């Protein structure tokens, strides 16, 4: 007896809970759809047109109702407020129905009102998604990066030239070259221009001589159009193909055929062991490169010995450095990140 009552009570509760959940979901879906498109009203009914109306019929109906409900056509405050609300509804309905894709989404919602979450996705996808073609955005972005990259390279190069003019060794060489080529006027007494103007002209001449005669390498080298992002992307298939060909040649010559390394290959291996990129490697003086070559640093065992020697030399120099001694004393007494209350 009690078993039957308990079982019936349980089934009833389950049925009630399911019914409530369905009602809550329905109400929730209705309230969510209320914020989409024209809300509770039908966009076609707002404009007073049937669903099968053409775009021209929809536009004609909107213009007619927009003139009627335009806020400027009403004088009283209450009438103007109601007209503004109606005018906003008309504009919303027209924006939805005049676009073919948006209208198709709206018609789908009318035919499938139970697919709440899909309607939300379709609705906000149109508003959140960018209106501009992604390819155009990508092209503009690459162009901006290329311009900034090229401008930054020229700024670094100009800064390097400005610095070289202040270095006595390079400045004297530039002056000698400028005098030999007749770019500098040796007799300044005949020049009646202000001294500031003459000095600026001489500085410009010396900078031009340095730009032409001095080969600045590394991160401050003269920029090339081949280094900008656009050109690198255009040449990317060729670069990849050239690398693949080079890699297979390397494997064939030195791994399979066991040929001896040439000077170029030795320099390449040394650069890889030093972890230098091409720009950093180009900034190294030729004498230093030849020293690496003489030490045979492309060989792993030689490179390890040389690296250990450099580390020992660096430690010895730091041990003799007064500032480094003070730093080590502080770290030994106080430790990293400690807070003390010593006077």
Automatic annotation (TrEMBL):
Which ranges does the record mark as transmembrane? 12-31, 132-152, 228-248
Q: Where in the cell is it found?
A: Membrane
Identify its membrane topology class.
Multi-pass membrane protein
Kindly name one Pfam family recorded for this protein. DnaJ
Q: Where is it mostly found?
A: membrane
> Which of UniProt's keywords are assigned here?
Chaperone, Membrane, Transmembrane, Transmembrane helix
| Domain of life the protein comes from | Eukaryota
Record-stated family: Belongs to the DNAJC25 family.
Q: Show the PANTHER family listed in the entry.
A: DNAJ HOMOLOG SUBFAMILY C MEMBER 25 (PTHR44176:SF1)
Protein name, per record: DnaJ homolog subfamily C member 25 homolog
What species is given as this protein's source? Limulus polyphemus (Atlantic horseshoe crab)
């Amino acid at each position: 007896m009690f078993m039957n009552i308990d079982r019936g009570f349980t089934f009833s509760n389950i049925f009630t809970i399911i019914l409530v959940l369905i009602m809550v979901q329905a109400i929730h879906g209705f309230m969510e759809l209320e914020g989409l498109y024209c809300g509770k009203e039908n966009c076609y009914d707002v404009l007073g047109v049937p669903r099968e109306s053409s775009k021209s019929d929809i536009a004609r109906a909107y213009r007619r109702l927009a003139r009627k409900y335009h806020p400027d056509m009403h004088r009283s405050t209450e009438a103007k407020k109601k007209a503004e609300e109606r005018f906003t509804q008309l504009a919303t309905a027209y924006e939805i129905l005049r676009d073919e894709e948006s209208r198709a989404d709206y018609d789908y919602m009318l035919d499938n009102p139970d697919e709440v979450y899909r309607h939300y996705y379709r609705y906000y996808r149109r508003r959140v998604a960018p209106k501009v073609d992604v390819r155009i955005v990508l092209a503009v972005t690459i162009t901006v990066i290329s311009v900034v990259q090229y401008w930054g390279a020229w700024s670094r190069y100009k800064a390097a030239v400005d610095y070289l003019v202040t270095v006595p060794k390079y400045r004297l060489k530039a002056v000698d070259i400028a005098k030999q080529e007749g770019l500098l006027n040796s007799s300044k007494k005949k020049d009646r221009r202000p001294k500031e103007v003459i000095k600026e002209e001489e500085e410009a001449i010396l900078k031009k001589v340095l730009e032409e005669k001095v080969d600045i390498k590394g991160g401050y080298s003269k920029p090339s159009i081949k280094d900008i992002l656009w050109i690198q992307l255009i040449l990317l298939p060729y670069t990849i193909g050239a690398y693949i060909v080079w890699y297979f040649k390397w494997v064939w010559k030195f791994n399979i055929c066991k040929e001896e390394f040439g000077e170029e290959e030795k320099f390449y291996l040394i650069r890889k062991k030093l972890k230098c990129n091409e720009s950093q490697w180009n900034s190294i003086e030729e004498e230093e490169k030849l020293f690496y070559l003489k030490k045979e640093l492309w060989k792993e065992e030689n490179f390890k010995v040389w690296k250990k020697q450099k580390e020992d030399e660096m430690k010895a120099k730091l041990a003799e450095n007064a500032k480094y001694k003070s730093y080590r004393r502080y770290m030994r007494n106080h430790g990293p990140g400690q807070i003390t209350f010593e006077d």
